[in-house]
Amino acid sequence: MTNADLTDVARPTAAPFPWVEEWFTFGVTGTNGKTSTSSLLMSILRHAGKSVLLETTIGYRLDDEELDVPRTTQGFIAAFKHAHERGARDAVIEVTSQALAQGYAKRWRFDLGVFTNLSRDHLDAHGSWEHYLASKAQLFVHLGPGRTAVLNAADETALLLDQVTPPDVRRLWYSCPSRGPRVRDSDLEAVSIELSPEGTRIVLRPSALCEELDGGLSIPLIGHVFAENALAAACAAHGYGIGGAVIRQGLAATPLVPGRFQLVARSPALVAVDFAHTPDALARTCEAARALARSRRVIVVFGAGGGRDKAKRGPMGRAVGERADLAWVTNDNPRQEEPAAIAKAVAAGCRKGGRAYVRVELDRRRAIEAALAEAAPGDVVVIAGKGHERGQSIGTETLPFSDIDEVQRVLG
Questions:
Q1: Which of 161, 180, 203, 301 is deepest in the core (most CB within 10 A)?
Q2: 266-290 mean pLDDT
Q3: Class of residue 64 by CB neighbours under 10 A (exposed 0-12, middle 13-18, buried 19+)
């Protein structure tokens, strides 16, 4: 899509119902980090005194209340109506590429768009990288005049999004060195990132926005990628008009995001459960574990889902094989595929990584038990792929299963 194509786009998107006119909706899209960025942004808005509706992969939340509604069009509208009746007028929505491909941004008005990053995922649904990117772009193409796009200056695909975003939309750029070198100047840039079991500290490069944020940020989430997500959330809040002190306070007080490098044990080893299920996300999760382990070992339990993009299995394995010391390849929602065939592809990629010693145990429960039994004080164990999920899809059934519960069962 080029700027010339924008003449065919109605902007801004009309509100689907009269009562929606009062709402300000943030849309967060990208391959990884959508849930974390949305949660960080919600915390800032709550500290600004706003009542906020949040919709992510984890579910719906109105302020501190979880809403029991399905992640369907009907559930989406029901959640908004409930929030509207309760007085909320601000929403943070995790926007998937599949929803955007189906015309989501043409039916619901987004007032501020946030782009996290783009890497290989969902190509089974989109058919090509170009279609995947074009789907993400829909969020920005439909932003109205005077609205704001928050873009990642260390992800070169953001330059393509910038080209198709209307010229009357304000841009705010952010970047972290962990993503790679900047492809353009940024308004908010991390100079250094320090990880600890208590969270992540970020030192910012001097800029007008850095000065407003007093030179740095702290978040309770652990990982370089969460530092990147925090900068995206800070830019979005700044674009909305929230001051630096409130942004800092909101980020520092962000509640735990379930299954996002969630520490579920600290002894004898650090044990984290993480949702990472793409090559890029697994690489970054392993790097966070390495920063915490220092000279000790990183042990990873992971697999790949069945019925999805088969070509990413080898790269997923390689991402772990290059960074971990011990990898247990296991089941991760095999669905109706043969689990052993999935594991074989993942393990082959893992061995190509050249660092990790690779073991295969198809029973995920036994793989977790073995990894925890192997861990020594100072090691970091990461159980990746399922995060917050409470089920394991095998064949046509989804059986109860939680990585978090399994760790707690084993370690007591």
A1: 301
A2: 95
A3: exposed
Q: Say yes or no: 122 and 239 in one domain.
A: yes
Opening angle at CA 178, ends 206 and 323, nearest 5: 155
157-167 per-position pLDDT tens digit: 999 999 999 99
pLDDT in tens, 391-404: 999 999 999 999 99
Of the listed ranges 44-53, 101-110, 266-275, 321-330, the least confidently predicted one is 101-110
Using the 8-state DSSP alphabet, how is residue 335 labeled?
Answer: B
Say if residue 235 is in the same domain as residue 272: no
Pairing of strands 397-400, 326-329: unpaired
**8: in domain:** yes
Structure tokens at 137: 């772009």
- For residue 127, what pLDDT is reported? 55
Same domain, 215 and 272: no
Domain that holds residue 275: 262-411
Kindly report the pTM of this predicted structure.
0.94
Domain count, the chain: 2
Instruction: Please name the amino acid found at residue 3.
Output: N
Both tokens assigned to 147: 């609205």
Q: Which CATH number belongs to the domain containing residue 173 in this structure? A: 3.40.1190.10
279-293 vs 224-240: helix axis angle to the nearest 10?
A: 110
Q: Which residues are CB-contacts of 229 (< 8 A; sequence separation ≥ 6)?
A: 33, 36, 37, 40, 116, 221
| 223 belongs to a structural domain | yes
Residues 188 and 288 reside in one and the same domain: no
- Domain shared by 272 and 176, yes or no: no
Adjacency order of strands within the sheet including 216-219: 65-67, 59-62, 52-56, 90-94, 24-29, 112-115, 148-152, 170-175, 188-196, 199-204, 216-219
Q: What are 201's strand-pairing partners?
A: 194, 218
- Picking from 356, 395, 89, 396, the residue whose alpha carbon sits closest to that of residue 384 is 356
Note whether residue 257 is domain-resident: no
Cα 257 from Cα 266, distance rounded (Å): 18
Same domain membership, residue 206 and residue 270:
no
pLDDT tens string 281-338: 999 999 999 999 989 999 999 999 998 889 999 999 999 999 999 999 999 999 999 9
190 and 245 belong to one structural domain: yes
